[in-house]
Design a protein that fits this description.
alpha+beta, 107 residues, 3 helices
């Protein structure tokens, strides 16, 4: 499966628990919607992913990627230390200038 470079980096940095590199996949004003919370900007996104990495130690295996214009949907099997693991989630990505400008995680 062919993924845009930023989506490849997004998956790789998640699987390496590299929250700094993960955050660099996002624009300065990016917005993340996950688990009923909204995280805006790189600082909040970094805090969110650092907490998630520590709490869940999750990794993702891409299953499918679909793109339409500047939007993409990554379907991935996510495994980690959380009830129901592994689970298949969808990562709805808004892309801008080869970075992620918005992310909404659904399952």
């Amino acid at each position: 499966m062919e993924l845009p470079k930023v989506v490849e980096r997004f998956v790789e940095t998640q699987n390496n628990y590299d929250s700094k590199a993960y955050t660099e996949c996002f624009t300065e004003s990016a917005i993340v919607h996950d688990e009923g919370k909204v995280h805006t900007g790189k600082d909040e996104i970094r805090q969110w992913i650092e907490h998630a990495n520590e709490a869940y130690q999750s990794s993702m295996e891409p299953l499918k990627y679909e793109e339409s214009g500047s939007n993409g949907v990554l379907t991935a099997r996510v495994s980690g230390k959380f009830p129901g693991s592994p689970i298949v989630l969808q990562f709805h990505l808004g892309l801008m200038n080869d970075l992620i400008d918005s992310l909404k995680v659904t399952g």
